[in-house]
Structure to design on (483 residues):
């Protein structure tokens, strides 16, 4: 299954950036990829998997540098967008409300905002006004599978254009 | 006061697992146990208290091992469910939307997902489809009272069966 | 631009405590100060800036003590309230739903709740019943610009009195 449709404007912008929406597999048996309440779509926390693999592991301020982490933030955001697109039908119907960016941080690392900017800029570029989100970026002690970045989105279905 | 009613299917399933919903005391004076907006019920972050005591303290990857932490995650989730049940009347009316699992993690601990699975499996077993939740698990530097686990839920009132 | 109006009861209570709502500048270009879905207003994570400067930096259990951090929590909460007030028109129309308090914590620091109490008490004093919020306090490895505290609010527009 894939959430991509060739006519999607947002998917084309994503391709222009060199990315694609990953296909959505069967849900994990212990939780679901998203859940709705009223108009809100809570997307489960996403790691920057590419074809099931993490491109990097470790901490900012340690093994991972900021440009790498910005790319990981973009990849995690894309994975979250793919879930949201599967919820509302296609990426052009996704509006992002809020993004939580968790950055695995060694002692003294204080540049979580710059890492998060990687994801924020991608949302704006790909979704335009629908990508305008409230954001919180924090530094955490560690993340599942030693991922340097994890992203959680709250989205909603965009009003028809 | 207690949220339990003997006829509750979910409460019976919880008892079959060896747990009970704790009674809800008077709210803390500085914040409330839950707050609503539209259909959403935000439950305040819950520690794995049992009768007012934490069964364990410390960090994963340090003093606390994964099976212990899974049990703490179950206990924190039950405390959150008790709050949600008090909000909607009984546990059978609780639908979980999203769970945030905070795992106090020593350097290098990367198995927050397995800890969180303890809580996720309990939600599914006890609530069935109403327990299907989006989830985010992260590793944090520390938690109040040195608790190894803290859980925050967003719930809603389930549609009548 | 300022969100303050002299007639606001809440703004007057804030002044009695020695604080003021900061003016709202132009939004950051990469994300927005708040975003709405249904009745919820998600406020972006706020640092305890005063006139663009952080009054302190570092970790709890390290460079920053609890009374300092409680003051920083109050300042971050006020910055979040200023955003919410700009969203709904004035501070008297703000109802707080949920507060996430991130406390940058050195190893072993376990008193995040006491730090968060600084912000919780301010919300109750300034907003009365509209300040009654669900809360989650956690200890994180680090925060942007080495801030000791960051606060994220979900708010809504209060029902007319």
């Amino acid at each position: 299954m894939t959430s991509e449709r060739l006519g999607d404007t947002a998917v084309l912008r994503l391709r222009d950036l060199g990315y694609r929406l990953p296909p959505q597999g069967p849900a994990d048996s212990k939780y679901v990829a998203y859940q709705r309440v009223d108009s809100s779509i809570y997307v489960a926390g996403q790691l920057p998997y590419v074809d099931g693999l993490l491109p990097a592991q470790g901490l900012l301020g340690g093994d991972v540098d900021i440009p790498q982490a910005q790319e990981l933030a973009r990849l995690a955001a894309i994975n979250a967008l793919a879930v949201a697109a599967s919820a509302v039908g296609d990426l052009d119907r996704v509006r992002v409300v809020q993004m939580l960016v968790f950055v695995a941080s060694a002692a003294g690392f204080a540049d979580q905002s710059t890492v998060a900017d990687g994801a924020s800029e991608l949302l704006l570029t790909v979704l335009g006004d629908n990508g305008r989100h409230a954001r919180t970026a924090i530094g955490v002690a560690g993340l599942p599978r030693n991922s340097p970045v994890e992203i959680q989105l709250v989205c909603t279905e965009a009003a028809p254009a």
